[in-house]
Each structure stands twice: as C-alpha cells, then as structure tokens.
Amino acid sequence: MPRLQRVVPRCLSSILVIAVILLRRSEADVGTAGHYDPPYTPTACFGYDPLQFPSSFLFAAAGEGIWDNGAACGRQYWVRCVSADRPKTCNPAQLVQVRIVDRALSTVSRSSLDHATIVLSKTAFEAIANPSASSVNVEFVQV
C-alpha cells in the first residue's frame, strides 16, 4: 500500500500538468526550436555560475522574440515539439520544462538553427525530438 500511495500522486501530477497544457492550448505560442551543445558558459544571464543550470540539464537560450531585453533570464517554459520537416521527428507526447539561462544570439556554442524562437540544451531537445534533427516547430507556454 505505501508504494501505491507514492505512485498515485506522481501519476496525478503528471496528468494535471498535461491537462493544464492541453487546456491552455489556446494561450500557448508557437515557434521554432534549435539545439546547442556544450560549452554552455558563460551565459548572458548568469555568467559562469554553475548553479544556473538545473540538475536535469533542461535549460534553454531565448531567441530575440522572447529575450525581452534580458527579462527572460530565469523564466521557465513548457515546450512541446509539434512538427518537423521529416516525419516521426517529434515526440509530441513529451513535454519539457526548461529554464532560460542565455540569449540565443550570444551563446558560446552555435545553435543548430539561426533565428530560433528558443534554443534548447542538447538534453532538452533530445527529450522532445529526434536528436539528429537540426530544428523543430514547438508549442511553448511560460510557467
């Protein structure tokens, strides 16, 4: 019984998150996402601070459309892949929550897509799409 008591809240919280995203669908924005590889520092938001990166490595750099003169630093977004040039690139059932730690134009390593709305860390991109893709179309909403 104790194991069931631990599993049920996790399942319910996952279902709740998915329901919120689906219900808020009309409030979500769409854009493009690329990815970038290490090195990730220094960042435009937090310099060399190693604590800026979530332990899950789910973080991103903001494109100019969401950069907001640096106000995007620290914001968190739910991101979901919705389409790509090649079929079966997206894992549309997978959502990731990323934290903005950098500006896409100033990342140390080059983005796989110039002028992306959001540039995901390698780990975040691989969670929602085939890692061989250079870019995908995403739906995102600020948390």
Furnish the topology, listing elements before pairings.
Blueprint: H1 2-23, E1 29-36, E2 59-62, H2 64-67, E3 76-83, E4 95-103, E5 118-121, H3 122-128, E6 136-142
Parallel strand pairs: 1-5, 2-4
Antiparallel strand pairs: 1-6, 2-5, 3-4, 3-6
Name a few traits of the molecule.
143 residues, 6 strands, 23% helix
Description:
It is a single chain. The protein has 143 residues and is an alpha/beta fold. The chain has helices at 2-23, 64-67, 122-128, and strands spanning 29-36, 59-62, 76-83, 95-103, 118-121, 136-142. It has a 6-stranded mixed beta barrel. The chain is globular and about 40 Å long. The mean pLDDT is 88.
Beta-strand fraction estimate: 25-35%
| Portion in helices | 10-25%
Spatial order of the strands forming the largest sheet: 1-5-2-4-3-6
The low-confidence runs, each spanning 5 or more residues with pLDDT under 50, are none
Using the CA coordinates, give the radius of gyration. 16 Å
Structural class assignment: alpha/beta
The number of helical segments is 3
Order of helices and strands: HEEHEEEHE
Largest sheet: 6 strands, mixed, barrel
Mean model confidence by pLDDT: 88
Q: Total strand count, please?
A: 6
